[in-house]
């Protein structure tokens, strides 16, 4: 099976690396700049600027360009070349209806992974379109990147906010914890190790024990001890509300991008509803 990765940037490169790690060797990746192509080739992909060649010579196509590049990419491929291809779009916000209009004869899936695919730990949600047949192959390829959740498309924008953008939110929290460690006297490296260990350990404990986060919090919290002092500071600074608003804002932006891209695809490709 041959796989095309259209747009071998940050997430596209991770797709190439994940597939190579999984044993796939027939991969073609595209980009515009020399640097992008050089990088794709160094990862083991055939690198080309020719999107039409990449799509027409492959069975499965991953779309990993920025949302505003979607119309240009569709135009760079002959309509006949999309026919019969299985296309998995990682483009934030881009709706299945838009993608199916843009690539009229392709079998289209909308998915949202995250950058943790770099270490095989993506949380990827995927929704099928109206013409999809080969879910097993898509499932197998996505599993090379980490966990896969088949969901209705209505969850994709929320998933994009929580899981797609999630690594950035968690990285901010980790950075804050490291600064906090330094504030109270730990050397930076030690604070960083502690922050990563606590995050990884808590995550694993919750997943493996099935314990509710409230119960874990209460188990850690000694009356008149240290944790409760920290918890009241978190409450008064609105940490929970800030995180909820972060995800809600990202969700709204995903919806906005979806509407913008739909309008651009219709305008630039001359498609009507
Ligand atoms: N970054 C992330 O964590 C995640 C991103 N996504 C989604 O993945 C998509 C890509 O994001 P990201 O990887 O961060 O972005 P990048 O900008 O890193 O990568 C996009 C790539 O697309 C290439 N490209 C642009 N136009 C064309 C074209 N006409 N033909 C071929 N290649 C082209 C660019 O190549 P060049 O630089 O050579 O122009 C670039 O390498 C977005 O839609 C985003 O929503 C989804 C989940 C997570
Ligand atoms: O920030 C973005 O738009 C993309 C989608 C999810 C992660 N990065």
UniProtKB/TrEMBL annotation:
GO biological process: L-proline biosynthetic process
Record's keyword terms, sorted: Amino-acid biosynthesis, Cytoplasm, NADP, Oxidoreductase, Proline biosynthesis
Keyword Iron-sulfur belongs to the record: no
Domain (Pyrroline-5-carboxylate reductase dimerisation) ranges: 153-256
EC number in record: 1.5.1.2
Compartmental location: Cytoplasm
Protein's pathway: Amino-acid biosynthesis; L-proline biosynthesis; L-proline from L-glutamate 5-semialdehyde: step 1/1
Protein's name in the database: Pyrroline-5-carboxylate reductase
Gene source species: Thermogladius calderae (strain DSM 22663 / VKM B-2946 / 1633)
């Amino acid at each position: 099976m041959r796989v095309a990765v259209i747009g071998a940037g940050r997430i596209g490169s991770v797709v190439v690396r994940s597939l190579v790690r999984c044993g796939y060797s027939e991969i073609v990746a595209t980009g515009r700049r020399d640097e992008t192509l050089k990088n794709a080739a160094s990862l083991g992909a055939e690198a080309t600027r020719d999107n039409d060649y990449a799509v027409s010579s492959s069975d499965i196509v991953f779309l990993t360009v920025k949302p505003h590049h979607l119309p240009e990419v569709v135009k760079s491929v002959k309509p006949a070349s999309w026919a019969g291809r299985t296309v998995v779009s990682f483009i934030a916000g881009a709706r299945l209806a838009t993608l199916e209009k843009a690539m009229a004869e392709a079998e289209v899936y909308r998915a949202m992974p995250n950058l943790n695919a770099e270490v095989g730990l993506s949380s990827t949600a995927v929704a099928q379109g109206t013409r999809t047949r080969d879910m097993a192959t898509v499932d197998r390829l996505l599993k090379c990147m980490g966990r896969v959740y088949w969901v209705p498309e209505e969850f994709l924008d929320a998933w994009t906010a929580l899981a797609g953008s999630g690594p950035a939110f968690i990285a901010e929290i980790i950075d804050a914890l490291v600064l906090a460690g330094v504030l109270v006297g730990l050397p930076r490296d030690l604070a960083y190790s502690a922050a990563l260990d606590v995050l990884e350990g808590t995550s694993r404990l919750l997943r493996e024990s099935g314990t509710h986060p409230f119960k874990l919090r209460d188990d850690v919290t000694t009356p008149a001890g240290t944790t409760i002092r920290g918890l009241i500071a978190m409450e008064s600074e609105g940490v929970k509300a800030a995180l909820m608003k972060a995800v809600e804002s990202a969700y709204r932006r995903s919806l906005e991008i979806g509407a913008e891209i739909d309008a651009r695809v219709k305008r630039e490709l001359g498609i009507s509803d």
